[in-house]
Design goal:
347 residues
């Protein structure tokens, strides 16, 4: 997973509006780094090394969208804030990346099992590989269509806020003109609609006076902690829907907290504690998703493919059972010790 670009010079005492603009700009720049390679997605992907590289590209771009969405969540939008439209488009783009990524994960799992199954089970596994490959190609086509309109011909030289471009003369929160240049960067007439929306929203961003590490930002992080804690009690029973919801909330909490490391004192400890929990929940959710699509495929399978598919469903359920045995104790420990609430109280 690609690392986020460090943002130098931010502290708890940084002006709130300036800090928000720099964080949003830096995370937007991280996403823009993938625009050129995403436009080439699907080309010359036949070789194993190239296919693996493209899988990593999709994964890293998806993580970059999550980090940018987390930056949007650092402070509430004002009514009519243009960032709201940009955030909605970002969510759609991230979902499309996720569709491709999920198929990559499922194909990797299936290919690992090709060498483990008996001869009479092999046709069922091969049939599923072909099916998932076809769906992956269709999902990649949809992604390519979105990439063109999402990024357009935006140039990386258009430094978003926090980059190396000169600062705008209008302070964050002031009466900035409607420039398409992100946070004082040089305007690019060829910029994509997404970039224009976000840049315009940043130029017009009005945040109350305050500090980046002040109470307003800390309370936002604390609210995420409380939301996750409410679902923790429900997820202890292991039901897939509850596990999935807790996974989403801990993921958002993790990315939100990462943005505030070095700014909010408790943020680093929170991220360090939540990250392994979120990873485990993610593995469990992959098992649940796998069982779902395998079961659907099984109901429509040809007779010759049934032995292999039955074997895969059995393997998937056993993997889920094994992972849940470990995860249940971890979740129960978090619940009994009220670890999330204790971390949140320190904010």
């Amino acid at each position: 997973m690609a690392k986020a670009t460090p943002i130098e010079g931010l502290s708890a005492n940084t002006d709130l509006a300036i800090g928000l603009k720099r964080i949003l700009g830096a995370r937007m720049a991280d996403l823009l780094k993938f625009s050129g390679r995403l436009k080439q997605l699907g080309q010359d992907a036949g070789a194993a090394d190239e296919a693996s590289s493209q899988e990593d590209l999709v994964h890293d771009a998806r993580v970059a969208t999550r980090r940018l969405r987390a930056a949007f969540g650092l402070y509430p939008f004002a009514p009519g804030d243009r960032r709201s439209d940009g955030k909605a488009r970002l969510a759609v783009f991230g979902k499309t990346l996720g569709d491709v990524r999920d198929l990559d994960v499922s194909l990797q799992w299936l290919r690992e099992r090709l060498d483990r199954v008996a001869d009479e089970e092999r046709s069922g596994v091969e049939a599923l590989v072909l099916q998932r490959q076809q769906r992956r190609e269709a999902a990649t086509d949809r992604l390519r269509g979105q990439v063109a309109t999402f990024f357009g011909s935006a140039q990386r030289s258009a430094a978003p806020c926090g980059g190396s471009a000169p600062r705008s003369t209008a302070p964050c929160g002031g009466s900035a003109q409607r420039s398409t240049a992100p946070c004082g960067g040089s305007a690019q007439r060829s910029a994509a609609p997404f970039i224009e929306e976000i840049a315009s929203g940043l130029a017009l961003l009005r945040a109350p006076s305050g500090r980046l590490g002040g109470g307003k930002v800390q309370r936002g992080l604390a609210r995420r902690v409380r939301r996750a804690d409410r679902w923790l009690e429900l997820a202890v029973n292991g039901k897939p829907d509850f596990v999935h919801q807790l996974r989403i909330l801990t993921k958002k909490l993790r990315y939100h907290g990462e943005l505030l490391v070095g700014i909010v004192p408790q943020a680093e400890a929170l991220v360090d504690a939540v990250s392994p929990l979120q990873d485990g929940l993610g593995d469990l959710h992959e098992c649940d998703t796998r069982i779902h699509w395998l079961t659907e495929a099984l109901t429509a399978a040809a007779a010759a493919d049934l032995p292999g598919m039955v074997r895969l469903v059995r393997d998937a359920k056993e993997d889920r059972r094994s992972r849940w045995e470990k995860m249940q104790g971890e979740l129960q420990h978090w619940q009994d010790k009220k670890k999330l609430l204790r971390l949140g109280r320190k904010l």
